[in-house]
Amino acid sequence: MNWICTGVAALAALCLYLASPHQALWPAALRRQAFLRWLTVPLLAGSIASAAEAYGAWCGVCITLSGFMTTLVVLPYLDAWHRKGVQHAR
Hints:
By secondary structure, the chain is mostly helical. Helices cover 73% and strands 0% of the residues.
């Protein structure tokens, strides 16, 4: 159950990151920014609710936040690795 809650929180972070105009992982996602931002909230709420039911309220919040924040830290590095061959203006 712990991994499911963390995975749902990671999906919420992915939705939030893909709605950012600075991302280049999936450029087609920029057309659906509003939907992705909206989808982040129910995914986070569902993750907190399912973790809180199994582990308690504060533990559920901590499990959800750990998955959410870890994914938000990893995604920019993944994006930079994806852009590795792109030349930037100097």
